[in-house]
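User: Run a structure prediction on this.
Assistant: Running it now.
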Amino acid sequence: MPGPPPAVAAARVAVRRWLQESGLEPGSRVLLACSGGPDSLALTAAAGFVAPREGYAVGAVIVDHALQPGSAEVAQEAAGRCRALLPEGSPVEVVRVAVQATGGGPEARAREARYAAIAETAQRLDARAVLLGHTRDDQAEQVLLGLARGSGARSLAGMPLRRPLRDGVLLGRPLLDLTRDQTVAACAELGLVPFRDPHNADRRFARVRAREALALLEGDLGPGVAGSLARTADLLRDDADALDALADTAYLDLGGQPWDVPSLLDLPRAVRTRLWRRLALEQGSPGTDLTGEHLRAVDALVTDWRGQGPLHLPGGVRATRTGEGVRVRREA
């Protein structure tokens, strides 16, 4: 008996491997975040086939950002495709979110609203994991954006296969080793017609421009640039994890703000910049707007202070030094 077509098989193998390595208890529910696009639709099809055979329940959540005319109809169509691809009785929900008009760029605001809705739905449906359809191409674009922003190793480490989402719920990306061409092919092989989001061609969005730049690089330098960027992310992730662990320990040791300058000087610069980023994010600075330049400027309050400051960070966050103490907090 012939097996499934190549792209379909690749997606199923990726999902099976992720589930087997996830540590989830048998019988746990896995929630699929599906937009109706080729990546998430290929993921839903693969998980709908594999997860029940591996002993897991499934479900799907479709987030309607309400940013385009007809978005509600698109979301309902995606929900219908999910119901057809998942076992009968699997929960499939459409969640409409309000994207705030302030704070960060439009991509960041939409992402924050989406992840909040996904986390809430996962908890309500008692799902232990949420799977996203990010591919190797998405990973390469993420690394390229990190390079363009001058961000640190954490940004260049890209997106992990799994990370905690909220209260014991895992966020997973099983398709990070697949290309976007493979997910498109998987949909075609299964006779699925994915939704083509017009925002994916809108150059107002940084990720669209990164996608175009990556295509130019592939054309000028030859195929394989996206794969190389993705491999770079894999290599940097272990280093970034180790430095993050050191920063977590230092964060606890330093206690409440203001932080003592001599104690900060005892730490490696790579640890200090992680601390500045953590404080800025905690105070509300959007991560997409916070650059390495911002973090270096804050660090100069410790290493090269000549009375400068306060420093204004994205999101209304301010870094100041007074005497031998440094604070990073939201402006009053």
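The chain has a mean pLDDT of 91.
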